[in-house]
Amino acid sequence: SLSAAFQEYLRHLGLQDFPCGLGSWNKSCLSGLRSPRGVQPRQEEAVLDEETPEALLELLRDQHSPWALPQDCSPQDQLLREVAVLAPELVHGSKVYQLLKSLRMVDKGVEEIDEGVLQFQQLEELVLSANQISRITSANLPRTLKVLELCCNTVGDLEDLCSQPPPGLQHLGLGHNRLCGPSQDKFLTGDFWPNLISLDLSFNNLTDLLGLVSQLSSLQKLRILVLQGNPLSLIPTYRGFLVDSLPRLSVLDDIYVGPDERQQFRGLARQPELSRTEARVVVSVGEMKGVPDPSALQQLEVGSEAPVITCSYFVTYEF
């Protein structure tokens, strides 16, 4: 589950271990614990080795320090480690759930978004790319969520996700999943996603361009759309039909939609028959190895009766 993966992630960060945490090494922590209600500190406490928060932070940031995070660590890792030095009480126990507005759990083997995720009451961004999630129960998603990224999972059905979707979601990333059209098109409407600005459906198995566009047209705030890698993107009129059908769109497949392009494709949305009749596939073979060149025929002597052998080859593609 996501909750279990998050707890394992916290243990890996070592937020309770030196130089983080509520240890005797942290002078700022001990100053608040030394003399509660005017009680004098005990003799053994006075000789403890202490470090200032600045010195402890330096141990985290210095690349030569044995406690330094890797250079490719995420901002989330850096934030939690530094908070564990400056205010370790904020990452102790369940309080850490209130600290995060962004949670990135990439390639952690997550299979389920469980009910424990609701503890993230301030969460606005949830990135779960490259996991093993096949279904998403929307009731377990924080209502504060604005970004949900599920790229490279095994999501094949959106029904559970759309039962109680976060009302303020602005980006939904479903690229490289197992969505098949047209059964899933009905869940991509403004009734479920009234505030959606960005939608990534790339590299799925969506095939019904006309049906999908009719649903997407109800997303009044949609400005960024990614559909490349689906079978429907092979239709010759694919881009022009989308540009003319979705006049509010600013970016399609990571390419800006300009006024010249809109003018060029004007009226294409009123000719849906052009999007039904054919698809175009262009295959280029740059080089083939291990096959004799049929053009390099053996030169026979004049008058020779030796048989002539002709070789030819063909390549097939299965779709």
TrEMBL record:
GO terms for cellular component: cytoplasm. This is LRC43 protein. InterPro entries: Leu-rich_rpt, LRR_dom_sf. The keyword Zinc does not apply. The keyword Secreted does not apply. It comes from the Eukaryota. Keywords: Leucine-rich repeat, Repeat.
